[in-house]
Amino acid sequence: MSLCINPRCTQPDNPDSVLFCQSCGSEMLLQGRYRVLRLLGEGGFGMTYEVIGVRSSIPKVLKVLTNNTPKAVELFQQEAQVLSQLEHPGIPKVERDGYFVYLPRNSQEPIHCLVMEKIVGMDLEKYMLNREMRSIEPTLAIDWLKEIVIILDKVHSQNFFHRDIKPSNIMLRSSGELALIDFGTARQVTKTVVNQQGGVTGIISAGFTPQEQIYNNAVPQSDFFALGRTFVYLLTGKHPIDQEIYDSFNDEVKWRQHAPQMSPKIADLIDVMMSHKANQRPANAKVILSMLAEIERELYSPKYVSQPKSTHNNIPETLVNITNKENNQPQTSSIVYAAIWKRIFAGIIDLIICFCCGGLTGVIVFPIFGFILWNMRLLPSSTTGIAYSASGSFNFFLGAGFFLGVLIFSWLYYSLTESSKKQATFGQRIFKIIITDLNQKNIFFWHATAKFIVSVIITILIMSFSQSLFIFGILIYFGTASFNKKKRTLHDIITGTMVINKPN
Fold first, then answer.
1. Fold classification of 2-118 (topology level)
2. Does the CA dihedral 339-342-346-349 come out positive or negative?
């Protein structure tokens, strides 16, 4: 039997011998050489069929776009263009004329079609489900990681990046080889993208998409993040945003304990690939392949003893050097937790900066703005039951401006500096201390904001105490650092941060 792909056909089943549908009259022999055999699947944007070339008798896959919105058509045509340019065993092959437009009988709405190589096997999501979510073996993980990175090296070398790597987009052939599919979201690398100027269309797969891509600033290194998350899924049998392994507050996937059989060196590499910031990930696929080769030699060759030992959390030294070079980070793993006196003096310097800069800005901007609104009668003429004259109101806005200026400036000052590459405020830089999360990684902006808010709340609570309780509150606030190994104060414990000496 042959199928008619006219979506309005009421009886799509037809004998193999007919050239036109017996129900709707649409052409059955697509492009004069493809006959549709059966429906393979369907989704929100299209349907997938198995077709056969009447001249070659080779089964292939036909993707049919059912969503004809301009954006959907653009992505569909983009996939055809990309696949026709990429020739690799791990990428479905598409002939140059594999994309075509089909017009059913009595219809003015074209159907966009793409014929590609049929990959016999199943995607890794279905594979894991069939395994009852049992994690894959470490040796297989290394082989698969290398295989996909080689494919990505080919994709990136042709100035494309995928943007939607996840288990369901990786096929395991019946031969045991992997293939990367669904290039409808792929994008060509341009100078604009490299410089991250202007938005790139957002493609989001929950748990696998990095932050920069969510905010429409995807880059080739975004593929490494998604690949790292994919291997977390394969090695743990858990989705990257599964509550059992995902720390939503710190935006961290704490997966290692669920994959104890995995080599720490490979685990470190995967963590580097999943770094929050794109410039903290490997620069390109060749870097990852180089690191994998080095790790394999160290793991499997007893003679590999003359090579440099790991110097950073078991990550090979080469990887540390490359990663740190891009981030201007120090290249050592020695950790010394910052002394309280350093934090206090650094805090005094930062407070002076915030009070001077924030207060000055506030007393200039807010009073003028507020006084204008007051004169325009857009603000009430009294506050807390007290009527103000023009001068009295200005004094009120002056005080309010100073307070708001200090508060807003302090928030931006701490959040921006502590989440920056320097990982420290100006005061902290003087005393050579930095802010990290519990994994010694950069904290992101909203994490730094949460830390600031908690600090403000604790400060307000302490200041509201009586004189004797105030001293007691100060002792508790800083005294907590004396009772834990990492010298974390109260707000560090609450927000999951720590302060360490900047490595040399």
1. Phosphorylase Kinase; domain 1 (3.30.200)
2. positive
E-state strands within 8-56: 13-14, 34-42, 46-53
Please write the tens of the pLDDT for every residue from 259-306.
888 888 899 999 999 998 899 999 999 999 999 998 888 877 654 444
Provide CATH 1.10.510.10 ranges for the chain.
122-327
Options 1.25.10.10, 3.60.15.10, 2.60.40.10, 1.10.510.10; CATH of 122-327: 1.10.510.10
Residues 150-160 pLDDT 10s: 999 998 888 88
CA distance 254 to 267: 11
Burial of 300 (C-beta count, 10 Å sphere; 0-12/13-18/19+) = exposed
Domain with CATH 3.30.200.20 in the chain: 2-118
% of residues, the chain, pLDDT over 70: 76
- Which of 115-119, 470-474, 486-490 ranks highest by mean pLDDT? 115-119
- Alpha-carbon dihedral of residues 316, 418, 351, 487, nearest 10 degrees? -50
Task: Check pLDDT > 90 for residue 381.
Answer: no
User: 3-state DSSP call for residue 241?
Assistant: coil
Indicate if 251 belongs to the active site.
no
Strand 433-437 relative to strand 2-3: parallel, antiparallel, unpaired? unpaired
Out of 164, 182, 350, 437, the active site residue is 164
Task: Tell me the pTM.
Answer: 0.57
> What is the spatial distance between Cα 47 and Cα 63, in angstroms, rounded to a whole number?
6
